[in-house]
């Protein structure tokens, strides 16, 4: 019997106060239920698919013998369509006139998890159809009428390319430049590290300027580039956020942006992902990401491989 202990399933069950033995028992029952359902579905529909040791099935629809094999830690671009086995559409991103969506093929790299696992079987340019048990999909999670608990899935996925870190940096810089041009935004200057910074106010003269080790208090708004919903709750002067400048736990763009600023300095900063949240878990569909974050299933509401837009004002600088 497969012992696939999905993190999301464990967290949900623990929230109900189940002991570990009960969790394992419930997961085993869910695995048996989904496995039986998938076998029955494939047999009823005369689908010839290959079973994997993890529990999902796949059919390779388009092969590409000359493509590069996808390996661990590759950054992968793909197109996809996700629906339940009874045909309810959850998400579709198949328009190849648009840029591929991107994830890191690594542990925890993508939800639904089976898409991440299947990448390790694929070469660039290959298309798969996956038949996925709920314990490798969204498990017991539900979202409005879009995703129901314990949904088994059929996923079509085309793995189109892999990218180097430098290619990703170039792609994100182009996203930023396109955004500035499309919105007629001026006054941003690119730093040596790759930030785009606009100074709204240079701050109070004669006041201490921030250096490493200083405590900087500030208000902020933070967005995914091009979106209006904030990634975190905005702050104001009565309840500012604060960091110890230069701290290793800070987002890199914060350490870079605040150095040399004084009280009442005001900036707008557009940061590429490698200077912000790094490479968090990718989530499809995009619209469930905030809900997963609010329920602590993922660690950040920011998407991987996309810039963020940061608006801030320094409230105070102190040693």
From TrEMBL:
The keyword Signal applies. It catalyses: [protein]-peptidylproline (omega=180) = [protein]-peptidylproline (omega=0). It is an enzyme of class 5 (isomerase). InterPro entries: PPIase_dom_sf (IPR046357), PPIase_FKBP_dom (IPR001179). Keywords: Isomerase, Rotamase, Signal. Residues 1-21 form the signal peptide. SUPFAM superfamilies: FKBP-like. One of its GO terms (molecular function) is peptidyl-prolyl cis-trans isomerase activity. The keyword Repeat does not apply. Its EC number is 5.2.1.8. It holds the Pfam family FKBP_C. Residues 73-163 form the PPIase FKBP-type domain. PROSITE patterns: FKBP_PPIASE, PROKAR_LIPOPROTEIN. Belongs to the FKBP-type PPIase family. This is Peptidyl-prolyl cis-trans isomerase.
